[in-house]
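Is this the right way to post structure tokens for a design question? Let me know if I should format differently. Anyway, here goes:
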């Protein structure tokens, strides 16, 4: 029966990941209402997110490859600057240094790095609390209501026009903090970062792409942390295979849905997603008291 559950969860993950409605919250609600809750921490959720992450990378492979390329070039320039510094000290010359952040993509890389640091710290510190919250559909419902409120408020904020070069590093840090707090079920990471980027005046296209790209290091980090649960006493070969199957299903469904979902996010007002979060959140909270 676990194969059927993980396939269904993979479908849920693939459909909801690229909408600001908390795929994690939907997974928790499904698990709690069906009674399927394996004792392997957040490994299953991490594997399902890994599947949709692969779909995201495949669709945005040009942006991802350019970001990686510029990151490598920046590291090379830093090494070159260190060598120039040492050479200047030894010879007394005044060779000019390479400018590290000189393109939009390089600024994008630095902004992502600044945002990812608080996300990793908060995600790691609050991991146990997030796991406890995942055992209750009430927390998922409350998280969805909070997400709905954030999206509803953000809809009244004028759309900005800031590009990477105009975004300050302290703004990137706050986006990372908000993303780190979205580790709890019901709090949509996508929704929170979209809302924060809107408040900070980012352009709609840039804010959307930044929110999507920022999820890559966050999901990879969470997956690495949870992979140790493959060695837990409750893990069996069949269960492990079902987790991998769920990741494959979520990736396949995500690949089919991602362009349509992102198009909706671009065109539809945030309040439409807010209403949906309110609806599902109320159902989850009501269901919590009916099944308790």
């Amino acid at each position: 029966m676990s194969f059927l559950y993980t396939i269904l969860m993979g479908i849920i993950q693939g459909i909801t990941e690229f909408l600001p409605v908390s795929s994690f919250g939907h997974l928790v609600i499904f698990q709690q209402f069906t009674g399927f809750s394996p004792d392997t921490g957040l490994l299953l959720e991490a594997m399902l997110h890994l599947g949709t992450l692969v779909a995201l990378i495949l669709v945005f492979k040009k942006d991802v490859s350019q970001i990686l390329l510029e990151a490598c070039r920046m590291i090379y320039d830093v090494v070159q600057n260190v060598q120039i510094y040492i050479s200047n000290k030894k010879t007394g010359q005044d060779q000019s240094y390479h400018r590290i952040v000189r393109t939009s993509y390089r600024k994008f890389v630095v902004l992502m790095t600044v945002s990812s640091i608080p996300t990793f710290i908060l995600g790691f510190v609050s991991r146990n609390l997030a796991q406890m919250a995942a055992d209750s559909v009430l927390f998922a419902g409350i998280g969805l209501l909070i997400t709905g409120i954030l999206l509803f408020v953000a809809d009244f904020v004028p759309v900005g026009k800031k590009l990477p070069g105009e975004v300050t590093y302290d703004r990137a840090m706050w986006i990372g903090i908000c993303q780190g707090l979205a580790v709890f079920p019901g709090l949509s990471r996508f929704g929170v970062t979209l809302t924060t980027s809107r408040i900070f005046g980012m352009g709609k296209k840039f804010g959307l792409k930044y929110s999507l790209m920022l999820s890559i290091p966050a999901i990879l980090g969470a997956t690495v942390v949870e992979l140790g649960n493959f060695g837990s006493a409750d893990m069996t070969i069949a269960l492990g295979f079902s987790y991998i199957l769920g990741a494959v299903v979520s990736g396949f469904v995500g690949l089919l849905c991602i362009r349509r979902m992102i198009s909706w996010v671009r065109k539809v007002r945030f309040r439409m997603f807010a209403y949906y979060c309110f609806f599902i959140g109320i159902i989850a909270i009501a269901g919590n008291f009916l099944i308790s």
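Format looks fine. Someone answered above. Worth noting: The chain has a mean pLDDT of 89. Residues 61-91 form the longest helix (31 residues).
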